[in-house]
Specification:
Layout (H helix, E strand, L loop, with lengths): L8 H4 L6 H55 L6 H8 L7
Length: 94
């Protein structure tokens, strides 16, 4: 019944990590995290550039659609006042 253990040494035993091992692990983890953050920052910049290119592409596509519609309507008589002004011949007054 008299089970006396030395304070704290036998409770944890030799299965723990030393301070040096913890510092080495922390340093290695920090290097991995720094590399990961740099990679994510690079990917974020590329994604933003691709998003901007996509917006420009969509704007150009919309502009071409409007231009195509306007060219199809040109001369079809859809705007009578404009067609009358542009297609009218000037007749000299006597």
């Amino acid at each position: 019944m008299n089970d006396r253990r030395p304070p704290m040494s036998s409770v944890f035993g030799s299965a723990g990590f030393s301070l040096v091992e913890l510092l080495i692990g922390l340093a290695a983890g920090s290097v991995v995290m720094a590399a990961t953050m740099q990679t994510l920052a690079h990917l974020d910049r590329r994604f933003a550039g691709q998003r901007e290119a996509m917006v420009q592409h969509q704007d150009l596509r919309i502009g071409l659609g409007v231009l195509e519609a306007e060219l199809r309507l040109a001369g079809s008589g859809s705007a009578p006042s404009a067609a009358a002004l542009t297609n009218r011949r000037r007749v000299p007054r006597p």
